[in-house]
Amino acid sequence: MKIAFFGTPEPSAKLLQALLKEPDIQVQFVVTNPDRPKGRSKTPVPSPVKEVALAANLPVFQYESIKKEKQEALQNLSKFDAELYVVFAYGSILPKEIFSYPKFGSINLHGSILPDLRGASPVQTSLWKGYTKSGISIQHLGEKMDEGDIIRIHEVDVDLEDDTGSLMEKITQAGIQSLIPLLKGPRTSPFEAIPQDNSKATYCTKIQAEDRVLDLKLSAIELHNRIRALSPDLGGYCRFRDKRMVLWKTRPVDFSETSIHPGKLKRMDKKALIFQCGDGRFLEILSVQPENKNRMTVADFMNGFRISDEDRFE
């Protein structure tokens, strides 16, 4: 099948790499977000998808707003005879004139079991809510975000130690396993699909800056879920000795006290440190980042800051 690929971040790049290995699938061009400034130099760098596309000598198109630039986009994309557009974490909503252009339309890979968690942050939100099951939905693109008919769903287990990075990897691999068989072999019509039950729809939004502030009065499992939802890219933070402390990785432990002092730190041994949450239970700290420092293990944190049972997170 002849396809075009729309995507931007690293998970999209992994899917594109997998598609390029398939002799029965011909990727004709790629659409990705514009190069963005990165690092202290603020030098614009290409997206992971663009890097893969250039390495494969594929034509690459980039638009600040594909909706506003749809006429130019249509002129460029119509030069190719792609039968299907494949979209995975592109980062912008495609206008109808574009997603309906190819013979078999356009399909989207969404990181949840639709109609649950339509929106911008399904992977993070599934962890935030403590889901034990998630997955990827392959759907037809429509005019309303994530409401298109479902072609296929592939479920994955969510483990208690998963964070957004590891769960996204599971979902990406599930997407690869589900999508490639769909695209192989002859096709004369669009993929069969089942309409979503809109009455069961739930929604999620982008993670906001205020979502990173950790409420230590929450239960241990609620705090653990928020910390792993924000890791490994954003990080949830509290205060320690009047400075910001980012918590990157925690682990629930079978330890509690009847007297409740949220944020109270307790040394278990030379390499183990726990803190109390709002339900009296504790979380073990595995990775932190004090203000103006690099990420570090809890052992390095304990040694460098000489942590005592009098210390606490705020």
From TrEMBL:
Name the chain's protein.
Answer: Methionyl-tRNA formyltransferase
Q: Domain Formyl transferase C-terminal spans what residues?
A: 206-306
Choose one Gene Ontology CC annotation of this protein and give it: cytosol
Q: Which GO terms describe its molecular function?
A: methionyl-tRNA formyltransferase activity
Enzyme class label: transferase
Q: Which organism is it from?
A: Leptospira saintgironsiae
Q: NCBIfam families of this UniProt entry?
A: fmt
EC? 2.1.2.9
Gene for this chain: fmt
